Amino acid sequence: MERSVAAGRRPIQRLDPTTIERIAAGEVVERPASVVKELLENALDAGASAITVRLANGGLDRIEVADNGGGIPPDELELAVERHATSKIAPEGPIELGTTLGFRGEALAAIATVARFTLTSRAAERDAAESIRVDGGTRGARSLAGRAPGTTVEVRDLFYNTPARRKFLRSPAAEQVEIARTVERVYLAHPSVAVELIADGQRLGTYPAAPELADAASRVLGPEFRRGSFRVEGPVPGGRVEGYLGRPALAASSSRSLYLAVNGRAIEARAIQQSVRAAFGDYLPRARFPIGVLHLELGSADVDANVHPTKREVRFARPSEIAEAVRLRVRAGLVAGPQVAELSDAVLAPRSATLPASRSLPPSGDSEAGAVAGSASGRARFQQQTLAGRPPESASPSVAGVRGHPRLVLYGCLQSLYWIAEGDEGLVLVDQHAASERVLFEGLRKDRPVTRQSLVAPVPLRLTGAQEATLAAHGADLHRAGFEVAPFGPGVQAVRTVPSFGGRRAQPGAVVELLDELAAGGRPTQPDGLVERTAASLACHAAIRAGDSVPPAEFARVLDALYALAEPAYSCPHGRPILLQIPRSRLDRWFLRSGP
Ligand code: ADP
Ligand code: MG
Q1: What band does 569 get if pLDDT is binned at 50, 70 and 90?
Q2: What residues flank ligand 1, with Cβ below 6 Å?
C-alpha cells in the first residue's frame, strides 16, 4: 500500500466531540466486565447492602446492575451521565482516595457513549423513581418508573456503535467468566455487601453478606480454603494488612486466586503479589502461587487511586516498604501454623475413582513381613522394620510433637522411600529423601557442615574438563556437604569421604552429578539466591535417597532435626511436600465407616 506522506497526509484537524468521547470511553470500558466493575463500585459508594447483577449473552447483549443504595435525586440524573461530573469530591479538589471507590465522574458517561443505556433511580426520600435514557451518547427521554429506593443501570448492546471494539471481545462464555471473576473480586474487597449474579435467567453465584472475611473467602475459594488457610494481620507503614491465605497445599498454578484490596477497592498490584509469593519462599515449588485474600487499609496520604482510568492500579507512597511489611506479615502467619500437608478430597477423588471395585486382599492369616501386598515381584514391598510381633508404641522409634508438628510413631517404610507413621490424627507418610534433604539444606545454608565418613578405599573418578573446573571452584562447598575429593593421579580425582547419617553412607557417585549441577548454577530454589541454589544442590546429593534402606533409628533422628528447625519445614527446598497426613476421619469416610 502506498503510504506516501505527501499523498496520504491529512491536515491537522480537531477531532469532533463524539470521537473524543468514544476514545475516552474506550479507556474506561474495555469489555463487559469493566462495565460490571464500575457499576458495582457505584452501588457500593451509594451505600448499597445488596446488589444484583443480571447478564444476557455474557453481558454483550445486556448487563443490569440493581442496588438498594441511596439513589440519585431526579434533578441530578442528567449530571450523573455527564462526563467529569461527580458527587464524590468537591469540584476544586483536593483529589485523594477518601472513602469512595470512584470520583473521576467518567464511568456512567463512558458506558452511555458506547451502549444503549438506561439509568433508573429513586432517592431514599422520594416516592417514585425516574429514568433517563442515553443511546450511544445521545440523551433520550426521561420517564417515571416504579422502583424501591435504589438505582438500576441497564446497559444493552455494548459497543454497538464502535464495531472495532466489539470485534476485540471474546466469546460470550469467556466474557461471562471475566464478569463472574470481577464480581468475586469486588465482593472479596467488600464482603459486607450481598451480591447475586444471574446469567441468562440462571443463578450463577450467590455471595451473601459475610460478617467475617474468612467466610467470604471460603465462599469464593471453596470450603477447603477454610480448613487450609491461615490468618495474616499486622501493621504496615501507614496502615494495616489483614486477610487469609491458603496453606502451601492449596497453592494454584497462577496468581489469579490471590485477591488484593486497598481500602475496599479490588486492585492489581504486582509488587504486593510478588512479596506474598516471596513470603512463601521455598514452601512452594516454582510455578505455584498462593491463593487467598489480603486487605490493606492505608491512610489517604499513603495511596493514590487516581492514576488509572479503570482504577485497577493504585500508587503507593512507600511501595517497597509496604511490600516488605506484607512479606514479613505473611511469613509470620505461614510459619505459625501446623506444618503437615493434608490429603485433600481433590487429591483423593480421581484416585478412588480409578480403584477397581474389589481390591485384592492379602491372604488371610498371613501376617509375615512382606505379606501386606503379597506380590513376589516386590511391587509393593513393605519393609517390616518394627512390626515383628511388638506393639509399635513400646518399641518403634518415635518423635515428640512440637510446634504444630504431630507426634509420630514409625511403623515401617514403603518401597524404601515413604516412612509410614501414626500421628495424633491418623496416618502420616514422610518422604525420606525430602525430609533428609530439608534438614541438610537448612544446615548448609547456615554453614553447618554435614557429618562425613571416610571410605575404606578412595573411589576414583575420571572428570571432564568442565567438571574439573567446577571442582576447583566448588571444592570447599563439596567439603561442607561431606564429600572430600582429592587428586588421585593424572586426570583422576578420588572421593575420600562421603556424608554419613547414623551409620548410612552416601554414594560417591553423587559427586559427578553434583558437579554438573553446580556447573549449571545450582538447583533452582526459593528464595533464589546463589547460596540457596548451591545449598539445595549439595543437600539433594548428600541426602538420604529414594531406595536407600534406612535404619529405623535414623527416622527419629531426621524427624527430630526437622522439627527442631527454626522455621518449621513444610516442604523440601524445591517445594515438594515432606509430610502428608491422612486423618482417621478421612480413612473412615474412605472405608464407608460412619462411627468410630
Ligand atoms: P463517579 O463514580 O466517579 O463519581 P460515575 O460516572 O460512575 O462517576 O457516576 C457519576 C455519579 O452518579 C456519582 O458520583 C454518583 O453521584 C451517581 N451514581 C452513579 N451510580 C450510582 C448509584 N448506583 N447509586 C447512587 N448514585 C449513583
Ligand atoms: Mg463511578
Answers
A1: low
A2: 38, 42-43, 46, 67, 69-72, 80, 86-88, 102-109, 151
